[in-house]
Design goal:
- By secondary structure, the protein is mainly alpha-helical.
- The protein has one domain (12-207).
- The protein has seven helices and four strands; from the N terminus they run αββααααββαα.
- The chain has a two-stranded antiparallel ribbon.
- Helix 2 runs parallel beside helix 7 and helix 3 packs antiparallel against helix 4 (114-133).
Length: 221
C-alpha cells in the first residue's frame, strides 16, 4: 500500500527520504563493486533531487563494466538482504545495527557533500534508535518495510536501465548501462533487459529465503 504515501497529506515526507535511500544504495553498489574487483572507491554524492554520483577507479574495461552494473543491481541486492534478515526478529535487530555501522563508515570515509552527510547520519540515527529502543518484532517490520521500498525502487526506476544519459545535479553524463554497452559491445536494450532480469531473480531469492523452504506436498496414503 505504499502508493497511499503519494496521495495522503504529507506522505511525501516519507516518500522523498525513500528516494534518497534508493540512490544511496545504488551508489554504494558502485563503490562496493569497485572494491571487490580491486579498484578504488573514492567518494559518493547523494543530492536532494534524488540523483547521485560515485567516484571510482578500476584497472580494466571489464572491471569498469562490473562497477557500473553493481550500482544497477545494488537496490535489488539490498532489498533481498532485508527480506532475508527479516525472517527472524533477532536477525532484524542485528541487521539494523550492522546497517548503522555501515552508514557511519560511509559518512566518514566516502560521503563528500553536505546533504549526503546529513542524510546518511540521520538515517543511521533513526535505524540505531529503532534497533536499540524498539522491540525486536518492530525491528522485523521495519526491515521488511525497507526491503519492500527498495524492491519497489527497482521497478519504479527501471526506465533508467534503458537510458543512454544520466541526469544528475552535477550535470549530464553517460548512464551506467551506456558504460556497460560501451565496454562490452552489446546495445543498451540488451544489457538493460539482462540486468533487469538479474535484479528480479535476486528479489525472488530474497523473498523465498524470508519465507523459509518451499512446502513439501506428500501424497496422502
Amino acid at each position: 500500500m505504499t502508493w497511499v504515501l503519494y496521495v495522503v497529506p504529507y506522505g511525501h515526507v516519507v516518500v522523498v527520504p525513500l528516494l534518497w535511500l534508493s540512490t544511496l544504495v545504488h551508489e554504494l553498489g558502485h563503490g562496493v563493486t569497485a572494491l571487490l574487483v580491486g579498484g578504488r572507491f573514492d567518494s559518493i554524492v547523494v543530492s536532494m533531487d534524488g540523483s547521485g554520483v560515485a567516484a571510482t577507479a578500476t584497472g580494466s574495461t571489464l572491471a569498469g563494466a562490473l562497477v557500473a552494473a553493481g550500482g544497477l543491481i545494488g537496490p535489488a541486492v539490498a532489498a533481498a538482504a532485508c527480506f532475508a534478515v527479516s525472517r527472524t526478529p533477532r536477525g532484524s535487530v542485528l541487521a539494523l545495527m550492522v546497517s548503522v555501522g555501515t552508514l557511519v563508515a560511509v559518512d566518514v570515509l566516502w560521503m563528500s557533500n553536505l546533504f549526503g552527510v546529513l542524510f546518511t547520519a540521520s538515517l543511521a540515527a533513526v535505524l540505531g534508535w529503532i534497533g536499540t529502543r524498539w522491540s525486536p518484532e518492530s525491528a522485523r517490520v521495519v526491515m521488511s518495510f525497507l526491503g519492500v521500498q527498495l524492491a519497489l525502487a527497482v521497478f519504479q526506476r527501471s526506465d533508467y536501465l534503458f537510458m543512454p544519459v544520466a541526469h544528475t545535479a552535477r550535470g549530464d553524463m553517460p548512464s551506467d548501462v551506456a558504460l556497460i554497452a560501451r565496454a562490452l559491445w552489446l546495445p543498451i536494450p540488451v544489457w538493460g533487459t539482462l540486468i533487469g532480469l538479474l535484479s528480479f531473480g535476486v528479489l525472488v531469492w530474497g523473498l523465498w529465503w524470508s519465507m523459509g523452504p518451499w512446502p513439501s506436498f506428500r501424497r496422502s496414503a
